[in-house]
């Protein structure tokens, strides 16, 4: 019974979040964090960032990957199924309807105004989440973290380097850094 | 068999689009317009617009749209299953490795350097939404007609609602949409 309710919660959460993620995968990642870290406390902050990295390093839509990784973490294989269905049903239904009435939908001024306003809100949600996550990392006064943050930002935003490369290079950097430090520790 | 073709075409799109939505666009075009001619290029441009205006990832939107066009609802189901399957396999595999090895020092070192990079990339994605919302021509220039005062006020109001009063983010987003709609009707 407990497990059933958990699956239902995973399904309903991803369904609800997916129905409102205008503007790309990172919005749903921000919302997933809000739901499962802040509200339900099922996943902790650091682990959530690791899960996001997994979602980003896999091919496919980040929104779907984010839902899958959270579903797997919380409910194993049945959890994945619940999360995928939840993430896919809203765009599936909405797009089937929209493609039937596309002309009217696109040109309607009320629809345009609604979507324009929602973009401001979407941007605010993402910025607020970034604020929390960056504060957690900068608060530790870890110079390397701050350096990685700035370098990764420059690489993705200004140089438009594909995220897969950024993740691979950062992971390699972390591996080398850890191994060097361990060797240093062993010598002492 | 059209369902199998749709499934396989979108399986490739799902498996090869590293890096999120915009990385998938050229692949979708290659498969659906060039390779199979299921839709025209004008349809494809429409599809991108629809994907921008509706919730959900572009790859799932494309699978539903093209599948519906070519073979109705069953076609849409086949295409969507194809686009999602690689995600399920890859993500589950990585998540399994993560849970198995996360206590190793090496894994922890790697994850510790990945975390700030992830935050930075989410920030970048936020900016790509924020800047075109605040500036009509998409460049940061505070000129009359370019700087959208109402959008900026909405953004600030949304931030206050989220930070200070901890309102539900979905409520905040819907509220912003409703506020803009109201302004449109009244002004």
Beta-strand content of chain A: under 5%
- Largest sheet features of chain B: none
Instruction: Tell me, rounded to a whole number, the average pLDDT of chain A.
Output: 84
What does the average pLDDT of chain B come to? Answer: 86
Name the shape of chain B in a single word. Answer: globular
Q: Count of DSSP helices of chain B?
A: 7
Q: What is the gyration radius of chain B calculated from CA atoms? A: 21 Å
* Strand-residue proportion of chain B: under 5%
Count the domains of chain B. Answer: 2
What would your notes on this structure say?
- The complex is a heterodimer of chains A (188) and B (187).
- Chain A is mainly α and 188 residues long.
- Chain A is 86% helix and 0% strand.
- Chain A is globular and about 70 Å long.
- In chain B, helix 1 runs antiparallel to helix 2 and helix 6 packs antiparallel against helix 7.
- The mean pLDDT of chain B is 86.
- Chain B contains seven helices and no strands.
- Chain B folds into two domains: 100 residues, no CATH class; 82 residues, no CATH class.
- Chain B has 187 residues and is an all-alpha fold.
- Chains A and B meet through helix 1, helix 2, helix 3, helix 4 and helix 5 of A and helix 1, helix 2, helix 3, helix 4 and helix 5 of B.
């Amino acid at each position: 019974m407990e497990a059933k309710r958990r699956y239902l919660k995973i399904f309903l959460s991803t369904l609800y979040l997916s129905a409102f993620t205008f503007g790309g995968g990172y919005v749903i990642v921000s919302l997933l964090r809000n739901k499962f870290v802040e509200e339900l406390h099922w996943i902790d902050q650091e682990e959530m960032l690791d899960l996001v990295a997994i979602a980003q390093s896999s091919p496919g839509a980040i929104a779907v990957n984010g839902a899958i990784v959270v579903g797997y973490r919380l409910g194993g294989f049945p959890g994945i199924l619940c999360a995928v269905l939840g993430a896919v049903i809203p765009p599936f239904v909405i797009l089937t309807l929209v493609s039937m009435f596309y002309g009217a939908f696109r040109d309607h001024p009320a629809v345009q105004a609604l979507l324009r306003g929602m973009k401001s809100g979407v941007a605010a949600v993402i910025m607020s989440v970034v604020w929390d996550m960056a504060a957690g990392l900068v608060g530790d006064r870890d110079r390397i973290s701050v350096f990685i943050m700035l370098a990764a930002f420059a690489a993705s935003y200004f140089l438009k380097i594909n995220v897969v490369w950024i993740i691979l290079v950062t992971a390699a950097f972390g591996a080398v850094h850890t191994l060097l430090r361990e060797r240093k520790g062993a010598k002492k | 068999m059209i369902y199998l073709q749709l499934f396989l075409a979108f399986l490739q799109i799902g498996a090869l689009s590293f890096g999120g939505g915009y990385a998938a666009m050229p692949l979708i075009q290659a498969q659906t317009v060039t390779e199979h001619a299921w839709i025209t290029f004008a349809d494809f441009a429409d599809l991108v617009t629809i994907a921008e205006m509706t919730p959900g990832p572009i790859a799932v939107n494309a699978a539903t749209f093209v599948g519906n066009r070519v073979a109705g609802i069953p076609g849409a189901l086949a295409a969507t299953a194809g686009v999602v399957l690689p995600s399920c396999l890859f993500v589950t595999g990585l998540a399994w490795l993560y849970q198995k090895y996360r206590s190793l020092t090496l894994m922890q070192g790697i994850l510790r350097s990945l975390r700030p990079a992830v935050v930075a990339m989410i920030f970048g994605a936020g900016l790509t939404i924020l800047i075109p919302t605040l500036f009509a021509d998409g460049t940061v220039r505070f000129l009359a007609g370019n700087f959208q005062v109402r959008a900026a006020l909405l953004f600030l109001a949304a931030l206050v609602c989220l930070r200070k009063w901890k309102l539900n983010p979905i409520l905040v987003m819907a509220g912003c949409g409703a506020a803009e709609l109201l302004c449109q009707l009244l002004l």
